[in-house]
Amino acid sequence: MLLVLCVDLDDDLGRKTGVETPVIGRDAVESAAVALAETDPEDSDVNVLFEGIHIYDEVDDEAVEVAAVTGVDGNDVAANRAVGEEVDQVLASLSSGEDVRALLVTDGAQDESVVPVIRSRIHIDGVRRVVVRQSQDLESMYYTIKQVLDDPETRGTILVPLGILLLIYPLAIVADSLELPGSSLGIISGLLGLYILARGLGAEQTLDAAVERVRSGLFGGRVTLITYVVAAALLVIGGVSGVQTLEQANRSSVLDVLAALVYGSIQWFAAAGVTSSLGHVTDEYLDGRFEWRFLNAPFYVLAIAVVLHGVSAYFLFEGVGISYLAITLTGGTLLGLGSTLAFAVAETRFGRAEPA
To answer: Which residues, by range, are in coiled-coil regions (predicted)?
Structure first.
C-alpha cells in the first residue's frame, strides 16, 4: 500500500485554520487544503496538500491513501517528535494488512529534516519537493523583492547601508564646495565602515542590552550605576596621571615606561576598583543575596595596588631600596590573605547576611 504523506513541519495548517491533525483521506486533505488556501493563499503548504491529492488521483493501479501530518512551530526537536507521533496515528488508522510504503511531499529542505524520523517507522519510496513555477518569473521576482523589503529588519540591514553609500558622493561635493578639509570623505567612509562592522558583529544587540541595563538601573535604584560612572571617571584621571608621570620621569626603556605609567595611575585605578566593588556589594545586600566573601573584592584591589605601587616605585626611583619592595609585597600578600580568612570566619559564624 502506498501512503502519500504531506509534511508540514511548522504546523501552518493547524495554526492558521484550526484543523485537527493528522488529516487522513482524500476528502479530508482537500478540505484542509481549501481552508488553508482561504486563510493564507501565499502559504507554500497549500501546494503541498494539493500535490498530495494530485499524486493520490494519479495512482490507480494499487491501494493508495493520502494524509497530512504536522509538527509544531519554533522547535525542530519538538516538531520532529510531533510528526513521528502523527505518523504513528496514521499507520494505526490504516486497515490494510499489506506492507505500507510512503511517498513524502514537502515544500523545502526544512520539512525534509524529518525524513529520518518517518523512515524509522515506515519505508520511504521517495520525496517529492513542490516548487511553484511562477517563482522563476520576473513578476514573482518583483513580488519577492517587495515582500523582503517590507520586512523592517531587512530594511535596516540592506537599505540603510545602501543609502549611506549613495550619500557619500553628494556629501563629498558639498564638502568640496564649502572648502572643508579633504579628510571629510575619509571620515564619512569611516563612519559607514563602523556601521557595517557593527551590524556584522551584532554590536547593536550589545548596545541595546547595555541601554536596557542602564534603564533598569535608573528605575530599580541600582547603586552600581553611580559607582560605575565614578569608577570610569577615576580611570580616566588615572590614565592622565600616568601619562604625566611618564613625561616627568623622562625615561625611554620599556620597563621604565611601564613603571612610570603604573606608578602614576595605580592609586586612581585602585580607587575606581574599590568604588565599583563597593557598589556591587551594596546592590547584592539590598537584593538579599549578600555573602561575606563579596567583601574580599575591595581588599583584593587594595592588595594588588600596594604590590604594583611598590614594584613600580622600585624600578622608577633610585632611592627606593629592596626593603621597601619587600614591605609592599609582604603587606599586599597579608592584606589579601587576612581579608580572605576574616570573611571566611564571618561566613562560617554568621552565615549569609540578610538585608535590614
So the answer is: none
Enclosing domain of residue 9: 2-131
In 10 A of CB 212, how many CB atoms?
Answer: 10
Angstrom distance (rounded) from CA 220 to CA 19: 46
For 111, the grid coordinates are 520539512
Residues 51 and 95 in one domain: yes
Domains identified in the chain, total number: 3
Per the DSSP assignment, residues forming a β-bridge with 101 are 2, 123
- What whole-number distance in Å separates Cα of residue 309 and Cα of residue 202? 39
The verdict on 146 and 177 lying in the same domain is: yes
Average pLDDT over residues 284-311: 89
Which pTM value belongs to this model? 0.45
Q: How far apart are alpha carbons 187 and 62 in whole angstroms? A: 73
Q: What is the pLDDT of residue 355?
A: 45
Select from 100, 106, 104 the least CA-distant residue to 123.
100
Cα radius of gyration rounded to whole Å, the chain = 35
Number of neighbouring beta carbons within 10 Å of residue 304:
17
Helices and strands in the chain: count of H runs, count of E runs: 15, 5
Are both 107 and 158 inside the same structural domain?
no
Last residue within a domain, chosen from 100, 116, 131:
131
